[in-house]
Amino acid sequence: MKPSKFTYHAPQTIDEAISLLSQNDGSSRVLAGGQSLIPIMNFRLAAPAALVDLGKIANLAYIREDGGEIRIGAMTRQRSIEFSPLIREKLPLLHEAIGWVGHLPTRSRGTVGGSIAHADPSTEIPMVLQALEGEVSARGPKGERTIKAEDLFVSHLMTTLEPNEILTEIRFPVMPADAGYAFEEFARRHGDFAIVAIAAAVRLEKGAFPWVRLAAAGTGPTPLKLRAAAAILGSKGPDAAAIDEASEAAGEELIEPTSDNNGSADFRRHLAKVLTGRAVRRAVAMAREKAH
Amino acid sequence: MADLVDIEFIVNGVPCQGRCEPRKLLADFLREDLALTGTHVGCEHGICGACTILFNGEAVRSCIMFAVQANGGEIGTIEGLAQDGKLHPLQEAFHEHHGLQCGFCTPGMLNTAIDFLRVNPSPTRDEIREAISAVICRCTGYRDIVNAIEAAAKKMRNP
After folding, report:
1. Which of B3, B22, B134 sits opposite A104 (nearest CB)?
2. Complex ipTM, two decimals?
3. Which of A212, A276, B15, B43 is the most buried (most CB within 10 A)?
4. CA atoms within 13 Å, Cβ hemisphere of A86
């Protein structure tokens, strides 16, 4: 239960960090908040030759609004999201979800960028990024590029980030002010990894949904956009039968539901259906309230 | 041996210096190098919460933080909680309400509760339960811990 030896680097700039990552043939790892990496190092499931700590690099922690987007620095602590008035106002779905991310003492250290780069498919921040169609910036030896959420997550703990690339910024489109939203999660203990979680956000206009955002976590190898369910809601609108149909579809469109000691694949399909129904109904009720 | 790193931080108000391997966990540094054994190590992978300390005023789990990451920071451990021989109101409340049996989780419970009451001075019982879900206690069944934190919150609001 102690990590194996590694060399520690605490660079002052991103460029320095990228060049350190490019040494050691890919056996170096980025250390952000460490709330996932250090436990797996303690178990020796990971034994990087070197850690490149981003903790001493200035200007990687910020939350700001810019041209219809919320830009979040990769090293922004999860707890800063929890207490940010800007997030509460412009990305209320992320605000609601963040209370489910680990526990108070892990949110003090855990970062937004670290959670996304770690890409655990049962975690909340990657799924909200997927639901709201956000994107990230990554910098590597060849410069900076933008990766859309749908192109970022490959599989369990795998992203399209290169080993010597660093995720520097996360961008979410501001949610429409009249959107209703809801986050539903089932876990054995509050703060544990989601067995299944569902994020929903909708706009309601003249009895139809011009804007639907739906995603699931805990249900397969990546955070999943529930496209079939969203399409049903988009075409049929907010009546009870359509929401039931969409919830059924949500369960059926899971690609490879995980089966493990927390629950079978069938259990996860069932939860996805139930939680989708709950989340959509709650989001619709909120959207109706906002319309009055 | 891997290269050693020099670190310095303030622990319970006292400046401390040390040298250790980068892989040394902060919990182990506190216990082994500074002999502050009040920080208890349970699971060593960030689940049980027994090792929770205060880092720059916030509750963190010291078994999933390297000592070197704490460089330049300010640390509070259970040993620094009582001031001038007088127990902290939370410690007093744990005593009065029987908020512990074996005491192994208690340092983590207290440090978690301190940070929690700092941001939420008037919590509901449900909010207290959610906050302490970060720390596992195998003795009490939690009820007396919730009672203690509720009583301490009241006392801290009206000292």
Report:
1. B134
2. 0.94
3. A276
4. 15
Quote the CA–CA distance of B36 and B28 in Å, as a whole number.
Answer: 9
Task: Report chain B residues whose CB lies below 8 A from the CB of A190.
Answer: 130, 133
**Rounded Cα gap, residues A131 and A280, in angstroms:** 13
How far is B88 from A53, CA to CA, in rounded Å?
35
Structure tokens belonging to residue B130: 């959610």
Which residues of chain A have a CB within 8 Å of the CB of B130? 190-191
Given the candidates 1.10.8.110, 3.30.43.10, 3.20.20.10, 3.40.30.10, the CATH classification of the domain at A7-56 is: 3.30.43.10
State in words which class domain A63-173 has.
Answer: alpha beta
The verdict on B124 touching A (C-beta cutoff 8 Å) is no
Which is nearest to B108 in space by CA: A33, A106, A40, A78? A106
If DSSP codes are grouped into helix, strand and coil, which group holds residue B100? coil
Each of the 159 residues of chain B gets a pLDDT tens digit; together they read 558 999 999 999 999 999 999 999 999 999 999 999 999 999 999 999 999 999 999 999 999 999 999 999 999 999 999 999 999 999 999 999 999 999 999 999 999 999 999 999 999 999 999 999 999 999 999 999 999 999 999 999 988
CATH class of the structural domain A180-291:
alpha beta
Contact, B132 vs B148, CB < 8 A? Answer: no
Is 0.90 topped by the overall pTM? yes
Hey, where are the domains in chain A?
A: 7-56, 63-173, 180-291
Alpha helices for chain B (secondary structure H)? 26-28, 89-96, 106-119, 125-132, 143-157
**Chain B residues closer than 8 Å to A189 by CB:** 133
A116: nearest Cα among A154, A63, A62? A154
- What is the span of the domain harbouring residue B58? 5-80
